[in-house]
Design brief:
homodimer; about 280 residues; alpha/beta; Rossmann fold; Pantoate--beta-alanine Ligase, Chain: A,domain 2; 2 domains; three-stranded antiparallel sheet; about 40% helix
Amino acid sequence: MKIIETVAEMREFIAAKRQAGKTIGLVPTMGALHEGHLTLMRTAKAKCDVVVASIFVNPTQFGPNEDLDSYPRDLAGDAVKAESAGVEAIFHPQPSEMYSAGYATYINVEGITDKLCGKSRPGHFRGVATVVSKLFNIVQPDTAFFGQKDAQQVAVIERMVRDLNMAIQIEVVTIVREADGLARSSRNTYLSKEEREAALVLSRSLRLASEAAAKGERKAAALKSLVETEIKGESLAKIEYVEIYSYPDLAEIEEVKETALLAVAVRFGTTRLIDNIIFNN
Amino acid sequence: MKIIETVAEMREFIAAKRQAGKTIGLVPTMGALHEGHLTLMRTAKAKCDVVVASIFVNPTQFGPNEDLDSYPRDLAGDAVKAESAGVEAIFHPQPSEMYSAGYATYINVEGITDKLCGKSRPGHFRGVATVVSKLFNIVQPDTAFFGQKDAQQVAVIERMVRDLNMAIQIEVVTIVREADGLARSSRNTYLSKEEREAALVLSRSLRLASEAAAKGERKAAALKSLVETEIKGESLAKIEYVEIYSYPDLAEIEEVKETALLAVAVRFGTTRLIDNIIFNN
């Protein structure tokens, strides 16, 4: 497996694969790879001839008081995991390779980026859309793979791809969880033993909502309330949001009729975790 | 020559050309083709196997009080001209084909879009960058051709292409003028006979600055003042701006040392015309 640090070298790698008639799958990541990422890579490998994973902790999607500096980085460990999941090249540029002097161009997906995580993280999805668009232009994959864990990110990227006529397929892979239900996240490593235990309230509360919906509950307020009450029962949990929106257009809904997203963001100490379920009606 | 109205059909046309190993040149226009556009097309034909011209009066680059509705449209006439200049396909989508319901994604090139035309036309370059990026993704040309007449637009597009790592070459073609010096523009058709005569002050004033620079004048203020004085001598002319900036980064300069842009925007009645010269030192 190759580790590629420059745009020029990445383009060369891709050009050679294209010449050989290979299809390309891209898995954009920020590294600190876990089973969620590896599932994306294995899915990509099953669908494309060549899988490229990017590992780039993108500064433009972090706010000034966020965890850019402390975000876990482990390129050597990531390389072993990615190779085992079928990745042929890791694109691992330095920030200066991606954002050179005078950098000035940003992509905004309006509307759906104002709510959920976009509300407490202004500029986050601008950074995400921008870097993903750059990665798409550098790697020019046939298909790019994203996790449903970041449901709003998926909605933003799908909207951007459609709006800007990008010739790329987006594949979304369901949330991978620990055996006890905690959604895999690179930020789980921040949790103390007590917080790790407390964080189980996320998947537990979503399961309650899922069960209620299965039994016929359609009222958004009732489903939200179930989740909120459960999370408030956990003293280490501080709710940032519990929201239900139509999906992927993130419009306000009173009843869950079409596809809808129930998404939560909760702090445990200084660690902010997100989780969600999608109702497909 | 083909006239193509849908993204899907455009992609099919391009895919067939790619399969045949052809290189593609794109000339984005808003139609009302004049000799400036035709020069772009002929230049494209000299450099690429297949030339596609887009004709799309892009609503997102017009302000609420601008000339979107009255902008000259003449597809039949344009088709004849484009074909004679070597164009193999015109991409002529309806606005709804480019901006469908729920459209939400815009590209901003920051900084250089705040000055010159960007100052009096807020949102204009956001619309330009967005639609050009869409056209690039739809046509996927090797090279795209733009006129130096829209010098700030060129700077914005070159910055966007570099920042977002778009795999496209940008070629810039010098300003094409009428025999008497007036820069070709689709908006020249708006001018009355008197305004058409008065508008010659633009090229005349720029020529004065050019001659002064050739004789050694380096002070930006002095060169600007020459142009302003000349334009103010024409009673039908109303200056919007006369500016000198470094080019293409559009930074303030006191002396013309490196490449610099002297750009003017002037109204003649309700018609707003722009013109410019580039100093290459």
